[in-house]
Each structure stands twice: as structure tokens, then as C-alpha cells.
């Protein structure tokens, strides 16, 4: 092994470690690795920037805009909501919802689909007393399965397609992946409707918890000089027997007093931490000398007159809030909204609100103005923003909705017939949407997830380094030395498992970029059809079911469904094994 190979390998291992421990955002971590490779001289400027001009990466950018344009009218959302209303049983509801969702995901990017339908399905569940956790992981999994059916179903497929073109190979056609994707999706959905459903947790939604579990929510009050019971005991101040509220902790400078006894003396500047019903906090605010600490000047009394509402927001993996405390991020001045509670792994974090350091997938219970949902629905800081107990009105425009769907179908037809390639078809679709004023240039910019593009482009540069230094060939030779005596099927399973493990660690597109050079080296050594290896890697990179961090849609529903990490392991592992068995056996018989 040469020095350059060893350097790249050590850099990749360090990158994996940083990603596993969530030290920083994935796109920033992978971009930093690319910069190090550039500064070290392993990559030239042209090689480092090659990913930013890759056809697959640019097609992903256009696909974000197309998906946003189609969904902007709210027509698909309204159709699906009406379709779901007629469901009577849990299984029937899942069939009516997730089969169409998988179909949509084959032709629209699944991230905006999950973002759009998460609040819809949550409200539908809560209105019927059903735990949203029974439906939200299946929503993510169904869209992932649907995305494996076509070239445009997920960014991973487009990235692999773009890399194959860079290698001088023929890329995927629109339905190349359907040979594997359709059977895998059908088997996966059957599993979700039967065994998977029983394995899912029965977690209440935010609205249900507020009504039914008063000790899940927190309020922080600061004692001012106007408090009439300064230097008096808790019991004398009347804070021991409050209806619907319980004083669990007093924070005094660096000291934390917990449990709070009835004899504890209250001092000026104390921060009183209560748990209880949200509605009971209104009464707490009426006590002179106690100020609500939510980081905002909005008052809980405003809930009564409708000038504010409670909002459920899930922190995204590209949020500027990540790895900062709520106080450090200046949440109040940025959003004019106050954080009442932070939920992680379906548990409220029992800490002073301002000191909580936010992570991807955290659910925030906010006290905000009535325009908060509208203003921040498209913000990169949040995956899902919805009012509790209500759903933001859909901006329904039927004519524009049907026009945008028609444009998409025409573009799909031109790709299917071979008149245009995917990049040209999507570019034309975006041009039509802009020219017809279906969307504005500003909206088009908002639809693009630039962090995803940076991650993909940076990963492509790292892939170049792996090929250039010979690391990809070295890894391929090592795998072949172990797997070749056991047969081609075992080698295919090895490639699938390794790609899938990378996906769970470093996200799907990055996993595909790192594994494809290795897969192509193995295909050349074995003298087998490279297309079969490419399809295998594309499916394996997309089939991220075991952790919430491997695929963006899993992270979107993580906080909204109140899931724990182990819920993904329990439900996703059997599904991952089913998809792996189906994919490897079909690919072996079709391409080899």
C-alpha cells in the first residue's frame, strides 16, 4: 500500500468516525475531507471540482425544483387527503396511503413527499386516536422502496447514473432499476402491512401528549424582584399545590435544586422548572413576579385570542441551529418564537430550555405567531413545521396543479421514448415552470437542498481520489481474495452489505459514490456485466432502513413519530434483509 493510499484510507476512516458521532453536519464533514485532499495535492483543482459538474448531481438539483413545482399547488396533497378519509381499518388505511406514496416516489423526489405528508398523516392519526408512530416510519420506508423503481426516484440512482457516464459506461434508462425495484417494493410493502406494523411502537403524537400526559412538558419561569414571596418557602409561596403543574427543579446560578422540597426558599433570579399541562401555564403566568422563559415576547394568554399557536417543528440535518444551544442560536430574535419543550427519542429532555444543544431530528414544541408555519414551512432549518391540532391550509390551485402534473408526465414520456435524457428533460420542465409562472425564481431556489448537492459533489471528488490513488482497486482485490472462492453470489452479497453499511453511516449518495469505483474494479477483474453491479449498489445505497441517519426521510419522521433509534433497528432490519435477498437473487439471474 502506497503512502497516498494509506493517507486517503486514514482520512476516510476519520470521516466515518466524525459522521458516526455527529460532530458536525455530514455535508460539511465530507466537504472538509475534499478540501484536505485538494490541499494535500492528491486531487487537482479540476478533479476536486469534477463532482460539481457531474450530470447526476445537476439532475438532482433540477429534480428538487420539479418536485417542488408539482407539489406547490397542493393538488396531490388534497387528492391524497380525500383518498385517505375513506379508510376504515388500519390495514386498509395503510394500503390506500402507502401504495400511492410508493408510486409517487418513483417519479418525484421522496424527501419533499415525506415533508409534505408527515403533518397530514399525523393529523389524520390524531383525529382518530391512532398513534402516528404506526404510520410515519412506514411512510418513509414506502417512499424509499418506491424510489428504487426508476432512475428519477431518488438522488442515489441519478448519482450512480452520472458516475457510470463519467466511467465511459452506458447509464441507466428510466426503468432499468424497475426489474429489481418493483419486486422489492411489493415484498417490502407486504412486510410493512403485516409483521412490520406489529413491531412499530405505539407512541402518542404531540397533540395527544399535551391532552393526555401532562408531565411530558416543561415551563421555565424566572423569579423577579416583584415576586411577593421572595425569601419565603415554596409551600408559603403557593407553588407546591398548583393544579396541573409540578415544580420539579430550581436552577440557582450553577446550582440545581432537585427534588424541590416544600421548605426550599425561593430567591430572586431563581429559575423555576415546572412540568404540567400547557393550559395550566396560563394560570402560572398570572402570578406577579414570575416571567415565562421561552426566549420570546409572545404571551401564553395570546393562545386564547388566536394571535399565537403551538407549533411542532422538527430540526433538519442541514439546520443552522445544529450543535448550538437554543440560547446560543438566538432562537427568539431569529424566529420570534419560544421553545417550550425539546423531544428526543420520544422523551422530553429534562434540562434548562436555553441550554439544550439541538441535534438533527429533534422535535421542538414552540409558542409562535400564527404566521410561523407559513414563513418557515420551506426553511432549511426545519423538516416539518405544523400547527398542533390544525393543518396549514393548502394553497390549492387546481389549474396550475394539473398543468404541472401534465408537464411532469410529458417529460417522463420523452425520457421513456429516448427523445431526451433525464437531465435535458428536467431542465426543460424547470424552464416551462418558470416561463408559465408556476413558480418564481426565488421559489425554485428555495426548493433546492443545497446541502444535499454539496454532499454529493464532495463525495464524487472523494471517489476520484479513491480511484486515482488505487485505494478502490486495493479494496476490491481484498474483497475478491475473500469472496471469489465462495462464488459470485457471495461476492454480490458482500458488495450489497458493505454498501448498505456505508449508507447507514455516511448517507446514501456518499455510500454509492464510494462503492461504485470498488464495484467497477471488481466487475472488470471478474469480467462480468458492470450494469448488474451498478444496479446492486444503487439499490443497496437507497435501502436504508436500520438507522434514522442513513436516509433523510428516516430523519424527517424520527422526531415527528417520537421514535427511538432502536425502533428503526427492530422494524428496519427484517425489511433490509428481505430487500437484500430479493435484489441479489434477481440481479444474479438477470445480469449474470
Strands of the largest sheet, in order across it?
A: 3-2-4-1-5
Strand content: 5-15%
Determine the N-to-C terminus distance: 32 Å
Structural class: alpha+beta
Low-confidence stretches: 210-216, 295-300, 389-395
Radius of gyration: 26 Å
The total beta strand count reads 10
Helical content class: 55-70%
Account of the protein in words:
The protein has helices spanning 3-20, 26-39, 45-49, 55-72, 75-85, 90-105, 110-127, 133-147, 155-166, 178-199, 206-212, 278-285, 302-305, 331-335, 372-376, 398-416, 422-435, 441-447, 450-469, 471-483, 488-506, 508-526, 530-542, 552-560, 565-591, and strands at 218-223, 245-252, 255-257, 271-276, 290-292, 308-315, 337-344, 347-348, 363-369, 382-387. With 592 residues, the protein is α+β, with helices and mostly antiparallel strands. The protein folds into two domains: 1-211 and 396-591, no CATH class; 308-386, Regulator of K+ conductance, C-terminal domain (Alpha-Beta Plaits). It has a five-stranded antiparallel beta sheet with strand order 3-2-4-1-5. The chain has a five-stranded antiparallel beta sheet with strand order 8-7-9-6-10. It is globular and about 85 Å long. It starts with a helix and ends with a helix.
Amino acid at each position: 500500500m502506497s503512502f497516498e493510499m494509506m493517507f486517503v484510507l486514514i482520512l476516510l476512516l476519520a470521516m466515518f468516525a466524525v459522521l458516526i458521532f455527529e460532530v458536525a453536519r455530514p455535508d460539511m464533514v465530507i466537504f472538509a475531507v475534499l478540501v484536505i485532499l485538494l490541499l494535500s495535492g492528491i486531487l487537482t483543482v479540476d478533479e476536486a471540482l469534477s463532482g460539481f459538474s457531474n450530470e447526476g448531481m445537476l439532475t438532482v438539483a433540477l429534480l428538487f425544483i420539479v418536485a417542488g413545482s408539482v407539489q406547490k399547488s397542493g393538488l396531490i396533497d388534497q387528492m391524497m387527503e380525500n383518498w385517505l378519509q375513506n379508510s376504515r381499518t388500519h390495514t386498509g388505511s395503510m394500503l390506500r396511503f402507502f401504495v400511492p406514496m410508493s408510486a409517487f416516489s418513483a417519479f418525484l423526489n421522496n424527501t419533499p413527499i415525506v415533508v409534505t405528508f408527515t403533518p397530514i398523516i399525523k393529523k389524520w392519526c390524531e383525529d382518530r386516536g391512532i398513534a402516528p408512530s404506526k404510520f410515519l416510519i412506514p411512510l418513509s420506508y414506502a417512499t424509499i422502496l418506491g424510489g428504487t423503481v426508476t432512475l428519477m426516484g431518488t438522488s442515489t440512482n441519478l448519482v450512480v447514473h452520472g458516475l457510470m457516464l463519467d466511467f465511459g459506461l452506458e447509464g441507466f434508462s428510466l426503468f432499468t432499476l424497475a426489474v429489481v425495484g418493483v419486486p422489492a417494493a411489493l415484498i417490502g410493502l407486504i412486510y410493512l402491512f403485516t409483521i412490520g406494523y406489529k413491531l412499530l411502537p405505539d407512541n402518542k403524537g404531540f397533540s395527544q401528549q399535551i391532552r393526555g400526559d401532562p408531565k411530558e412538558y416543561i415551563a421555565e419561569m424566572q423569579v423577579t424582584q416583584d415576586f411577593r414571596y421572595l425569601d419565603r418557602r415554596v409551600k408559603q409561596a403557593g407553588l407546591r399545590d398548583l393544579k396541573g403543574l409540578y415544580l420539579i427543579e430550581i436552577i440557582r446560578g450553577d446550582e440545581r435544586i432537585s427534588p424541590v422540597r416544600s421548605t426550599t426558599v425561593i430567591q430572586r433570579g431563581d429559575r423555576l422548572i415546572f412540568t404540567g399541562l400547557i393550559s395550566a401555564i396560563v394560570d402560572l403566568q398570572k402570578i406577579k413576579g414570575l416571567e415565562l422563559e421561552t426566549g420570546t415576547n409572545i404571551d401564553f394568554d395570546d393562545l386564547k385570542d388566536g394571535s399565537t399557536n403551538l407549533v411542532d417543528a422538527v430540526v433538519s440535518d442541514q439546520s443552522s441551529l445544529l450543535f448550538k444551544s437554543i440560547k446560543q442560536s438566538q432562537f427568539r430574535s431569529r424566529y420570534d418564537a419560544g421553545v417550550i419543550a425539546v423531544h428526543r427519542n420520544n422523551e422530553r429532555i429534562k434540562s434548562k430550555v436555553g441550554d439544550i444543544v439541538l441535534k438533527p431530528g429533534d422535535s421542538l414544541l414552540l409558542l409562535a405567531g400564527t404566521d410561523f408555519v407559513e414563513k418557515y414551512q420551506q426553511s432549511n432549518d426545519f423538516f416539518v413545521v405544523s400547527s398542533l391540532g390544525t393543518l396549514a391550509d393548502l394553497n390549492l390551485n387546481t389549474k396550475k396543479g394539473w398543468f404541472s402534473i401534465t408537464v411532469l408526465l410529458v417529460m417522463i414520456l420523452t425520457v421513456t421514448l429516448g427523445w431526451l435524457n433525464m437531465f435535458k428533460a428536467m431542465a426543460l420542465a424547470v424552464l416551462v415552470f418558470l416561463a408559465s409562472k408556476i413558480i418564481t425564481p426565488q421559489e425554485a431556489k428555495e426548493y433546492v437542498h443545497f446541502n444535499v448537492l454539496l454532499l454529493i459533489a464532495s463525495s464524487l471528488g472523494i471517489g476520484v481520489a479513491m480511484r486515482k490513488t488505487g485505494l478502490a482497486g486495493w479494496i476490491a482485490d481484498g474483497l475478491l481474495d475473500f469472496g471469489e472462492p465462495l462464488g459470485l453470489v457471495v461476492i454480490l452479497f458482500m458488495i450489497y452489505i458493505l454498501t448498505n453499511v456505508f449508507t447507514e453511516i455516511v448517507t446514501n449518495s456518499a455510500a454509492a459514490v464510494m462503492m461504485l469505483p470498488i464495484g467497477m474494479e471488481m466487475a472488470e477483474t471478474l469480467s462480468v456485466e458492470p450494469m448488474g453491479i451498478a444496479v446492486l449498489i444503487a439499490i443497496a445505497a437507497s435501502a436504508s432502513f436500520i438507522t434514522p441517519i442513513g436516509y433523510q426521510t428516516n430523519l424527517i419522521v424520527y422526531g415527528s413519530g417520537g421514535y427511538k433509534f432502536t425502533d428503526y433497528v427492530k422494524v428496519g432490519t427484517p425489511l433490509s434483509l428481505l430487500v437484500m435477498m430479493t435484489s441479489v437473487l434477481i440481479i444474479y439471474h438477470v445480469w449474470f
